[in-house]
Design goal:
This protein is about 55% helix and about 15% strand. By secondary structure, the protein is of the alpha+beta class. Strands 1-6-5-3-4-2 form a six-stranded mixed sheet, sandwiched between helices.
Length: about 230
């Protein structure tokens, strides 16, 4: 059997394989982005902390701007810092967040802001893809990544990530271009770094409700207790 053609074929990778390899290289390249990305997630318990930060500091957006839902003039602002690979964050978005959105965000009672706090390089990649998806697809991408977290937070995450990105309109080319986008990478990193160093975010998810810190995946019942007096006032 003549194996010459097989050898030649293997020596010339397809365009698809080249692009996937580029994406893999991009994910590997962002593995050393900073100490706060290499940190292990802290233990999370859904209990309110006594900490409170000045609203002027809290409301300062990162370099990429804030992504928000709800009425800008709502009586309550909730800011969530989350890591896309954090199982507690995924649980919060699968259980509590839908009720939060229906009862408070969609009714104009709460303005919800989501900020990236990647705890590892893979979470950074997910955050970058959500940013690259565009304003209208940012939150759908966030929710898709959380909903399918078990599929892409794996030993070989590239293809599952690409599959999810394609659902948001990415091509292989735009997928790889996003992961190689230094402006997006730096913007996500700066948002995370400021959360850690200025706002005392040290675990995920962390919620700020009108400036007060709540650490952990709160249930809707726990949120109700905090939000009811604020929205009635």
């Amino acid at each position: 059997m003549d194996t010459t053609k097989e050898v030649e074929a293997s020596a010339h990778p397809t365009r698809r394989n080249v692009m996937l390899a580029a994406g893999a290289a991009a994910i590997v390249a962002i593995a050393g982005v900073g100490y706060y990305l290499r940190r292990e997630p802290a233990a999370v318990t859904p209990a309110a902390a006594a900490d409170e930060v000045p609203l002027a500091e809290l409301m300062q957006p990162g370099p990429l701007g804030d992504q928000s839902l709800g009425d800008a003039n709502a009586p309550v602002t909730i800011i969530e810092y989350a890591s896309m690979t954090c199982p507690h964050c995924s649980h919060f978005h699968e259980t509590t967040y839908p009720e939060l959105k229906k009862k408070y965000i969609d009714t104009g009672k709460v303005r919800f802001i989501f900020r990236e706090f990647p705890l590892d390089s893979l979470a950074l990649a997910g955050s970058m893809l959500a940013r690259c998806a565009g304003k209208d697809k940012y939150f759908p991408m966030i929710e898709a990544l959380f909903a399918q977290q078990k599929d892409w937070v794996v030993k070989q995450p590239l293809q599952p990530l690409l599959n999810i990105a394609k659902q948001a309109g990415f091509t292989e080319q735009t997928f790889n271009e996003c992961l190689e986008n230094k402006q997006v990478e730096t913007g996500v990193m700066e948002t995370s770094k400021r959360g850690a160093t200025v706002l005392n975010v040290n675990s995920t998810p962390t919620l700020f409700i009108n400036g007060k810190i709540y650490r952990g995946a709160l249930t809707i019942e726990e949120l109700d207790k905090q939000l009811t007096p604020l929205v009635k006032g």
